[in-house]
């Protein structure tokens, strides 16, 4: 049976009331995403110490799945009335054909070459090179499958720079891919932190799947201490806000690796961290950059 996929532009005050109302009157699913994702107006939601979580993005896209025969205009009007908000003026409708969603999803994720010796391989694929370092990783609820440029940039840095025996902290670990790669590349002790309990659970599962030892925590569970390497693949605004926190986790002479930064934001981020670090030239991939610096 086909469905109707509706994309609705809403502001932060409308997003959650409209989503709740749509589910109550029969929507099959509703999800929210940042309407400005991938632009300089992208607004991260984060909840690190001293940086409270934002309510929602200023402009959101509500993705709504409705039955094939549903009257979209009438459904939106009824939901708006129930939520006590104006009827959304901007939305689009697309028909979604019935498909084998598992096979379709799997077909979109092939093994990803990071370097000649480092690959990310979904569990339903054989490793293209059995002699390589192969990270077993499936797409899931947590960010970090290796397909995004920011993740690839961090993985390449780890591949090029880890010599073995390092201590490493992956701050904002998502799926745990960077921490797991570090462990496979020879890091002696690896910790990961994320504010999302689902990400922490996913990271632990992925570490077990890959047969590596890495510890994953919520922020307030991480013990005090400094590391040889701290990696943070997040977004520009939280990276800037957490500069003292992240800098404090790097030992003198240690390395800091930052990503999730658009090319035009790189100088702003480096300016915030220059009291502590001397940076290498930024490395770029598809408009995103990775910054790497040595602590003074």
Automatic annotation (TrEMBL):
The record's keywords, sorted A to Z, are: Cytoplasm, Methyltransferase, Ribonucleoprotein, Ribosomal protein, S-adenosyl-L-methionine, Transferase
Entry superkingdom:
Bacteria
Q: What class of enzyme is it?
A: transferase
BP GO annotations: methylation
The terms under GO molecular function for this entry are: methyltransferase activity
GO cellular component terms attached to this protein's record: ribosome
Residues recorded as binding S-adenosyl-L-methionine, renumbered to this chain, are 151, 172, 194, 233
Q: Does the keyword Transmembrane helix apply?
A: no
Q: EC number(s) per UniProt? A: 2.1.1.-
Pfam families named among the record's database cross-references = PrmA
Tell me the compartments it is located in. Cytoplasm
Gene3D superfamilies, per the entry: Vaccinia Virus protein VP39 (3.40.50.150)
Per its record, the protein catalyses: L-lysyl-[protein] + 3 S-adenosyl-L-methionine = N(6),N(6),N(6)-trimethyl-L-lysyl-[protein] + 3 S-adenosyl-L-homocysteine + 3 H(+)
Asked if the Swiss-Prot or TrEMBL record annotates the protein with the keyword Acyltransferase, the reply is no
* Family the entry assigns: Belongs to the methyltransferase superfamily. PrmA family.
Task of the protein: Methylates ribosomal protein L11.
Q: What HAMAP family is this protein classified in? A: Methyltr_PrmA
Q: What is this protein called?
A: Ribosomal protein L11 methyltransferase
Q: What is the scientific name of the source organism? A: Thiobacillus sedimenti
């Amino acid at each position: 049976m086909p469905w109707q996929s509706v994309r609705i532009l809403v502001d932060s005050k409308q997003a959650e009331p409209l989503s709740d109302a749509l589910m109550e009157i029969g929507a099959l699913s509703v999800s929210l995403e940042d309407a400005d994702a991938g632009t300089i107006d992208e607004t991260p939601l984060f909840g690190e110490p001293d940086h409270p979580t934002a309510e929602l993005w200023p402009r959101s896209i509500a993705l709504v799945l409705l039955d094939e025969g549903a009257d979209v205009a009438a459904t939106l009007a009824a939901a708006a009335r129930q939520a006590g908000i104006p009827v959304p003026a901007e939305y689009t409708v697309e028909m979604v054909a019935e498909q084998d969603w598992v096979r379709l999803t799997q077909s979109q994720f092939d093994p990803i070459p990071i370097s000649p010796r480092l690959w990310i391989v979904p569990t339903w694929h054989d490793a293209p090179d059995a002699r390589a370092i192969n990270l077993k990783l499936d797409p899931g609820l947590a960010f970090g499958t290796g397909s995004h440029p920011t993740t690839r940039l961090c993985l390449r840095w780890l591949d090029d720079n880890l010599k073995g025996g390092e201590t490493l902290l992956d701050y904002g670990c998502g799926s745990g891919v960077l921490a797991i790669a570090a462990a496979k590349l020879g890091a002696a002790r690896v910790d990961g932190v994320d504010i999302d309990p689902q990400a922490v659970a996913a990271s632990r599962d992925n570490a077990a799947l890959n047969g590596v030892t890495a510890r994953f925590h919520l922020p307030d569970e991480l013990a005090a201490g400094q590391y040889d390497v701290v990696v943070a693949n997040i977004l520009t605004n939280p990276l800037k806000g957490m500069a003292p926190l992240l800098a404090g986790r790097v030992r003198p002479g240690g390395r800091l690796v930052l990503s999730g930064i658009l090319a035009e934001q790189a100088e702003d981020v480096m300016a915030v961290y220059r009291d502590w670090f001397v940076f290498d030239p930024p490395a770029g991939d598809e408009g995103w950059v990775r910054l790497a610096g040595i602590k003074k």
